């Protein structure tokens, strides 16, 4: 079976498994990778970019190498190759769990239970919830849904289409390392530099595809594109900017502004500030639905794109063989 078909069948099966089951309940591979990466950090850490780059190379390179060996072992067994791709896709995407956590917070806000909403917010993002009111929590949830649609679903599918199982694993490894050491805390400002920059590179294509599909699937394409063009470049993250701006325009809300992370305050630009309104708790459900539409559209784009490339490669190969026989 051609590699493009293996990816197509496996990716579809993996997303169906995620929709039906959510994340694996026990023995999650991403959690296991995180524990291993934390152990490597404990052995390597110095306030030094070189040590951080070595950490990134060992962890991300090791994960990709192991995935490549596994893919090679089942390369000539189509059923196992599809099963491996499906299991890997299920493990690295997290769209269903993302929606579940967002809806739990939205439900708490809808009933006026601000304390429960504050307790659950750290499950979804790194914001300090204690000083946030209801609209601020709702805004944080919508921003997290937007960014994680790219990080937890679309980016993985893009790299799966490019590199198969190693691409899926590599993207999730890099994204996990960024979440662990890529932030600007005193401990990780230098040590996590390589992980943060690599995550920016790996996330670039998925973020642009997510923004484009949010414009297509959000029902307000002109507003989404306008917010993307006007405001994305003002965001401190090169990848979160386009995604959050496009979601803001598609949903007709304002995102960005002042936020707090574990004792430090950031003043970010407002996205879609000219025509958007304040985020309400009801907008969380709208953001989750948009995230699902974007995920399904991304699956279609990645599968069709991978199969189109596969046909071209197969056609060139058969043409070359025919010339060789002549």
UniProtKB/TrEMBL annotation:
| Taxonomic superkingdom | Bacteria
Might you name a Gene Ontology BP term for this protein?
cobalamin biosynthetic process
Q: Work out whether the entry's keyword set contains Protein biosynthesis.
A: no
Which InterPro entries did the record assign?
A: Cobalamin_biosynth_CobD/CbiB
> Could you tell me which pathway this protein works in?
Cofactor biosynthesis; adenosylcobalamin biosynthesis
**Cellular compartment(s):** Cell membrane
What GO cellular-component annotations does this UniProt entry give? plasma membrane
Q: Which UniProt keywords apply?
A: Cell membrane, Cobalamin biosynthesis, Membrane, Transmembrane, Transmembrane helix
MF-aspect GO terms: ABC-type vitamin B12 transporter activity; threonine-phosphate decarboxylase activity
- Membrane-related topology note: Multi-pass membrane protein
Which PANTHER family does this one have? COBALAMIN BIOSYNTHESIS PROTEIN CBIB
Q: Which family does it belong to?
A: Belongs to the CobD/CbiB family.
Matching HAMAP family, A to Z?
CobD_CbiB
The record, for NCBIfam families, names: cobal_cbiB, PRK01209.1-4
Reported function: Converts cobyric acid to cobinamide by the addition of aminopropanol on the F carboxylic group.
Q: Could you tell me what this protein is called?
A: Cobalamin biosynthesis protein CobD
